[in-house]
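Justification of computing resources. Each target in the renewal requires a structure prediction run like the one illustrated here; the chain below, 173 residues long, is used simply to show the kind of job we budget for.
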Amino acid sequence: GNKDAKVTVIEFSDFQCPFCRRSYTDTIPQLKKDYVDTGKILFVYRDFPLSSIHPAAEPAAIASECADEQGKFWEYHNKMFDEQSKLGQGTVQFSNDDLKKWATDIGLDANKFNGCLDSQKYKDEVDKDFQDGVAAGVTGTPTFYIGNSEDGYTEIVGAQPYAVLKQVIDSLL
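Resulting structure tokens:
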């Protein structure tokens, strides 16, 4: 999105969370179309892997950072959620082999990606996102913070309908 946008939307999310996947399929596309693509908001994704209930969430978060290293964070983000939707409902189990296959599917350099994932190169970054979420009061995913440093942020918890996020965004524009 537009780095100079008046409104920032920060999503704390978990790649294995079924509610995050619902938000990805039902809310985020319209948000992107109406606000990100038009330059009205900056959308920021932050990792909040709930590893105690989603064992693949942390490796997936690390994998997304490895994809970002090759300039394909959003393509990989979308691929992970799309593939889980194909596999079933609820919490879908997947492995590091799946993460590697999905990376290859979107054209990432497999050797670089696999080395990055296997070494857990971005574990500290994922941990920092998680700790920032805890400090902000995040207790579940997805959690959105909508606002800016001048006006403050409004917290929205859960896979809320598009209209809920739209109302908060529009009140700040």
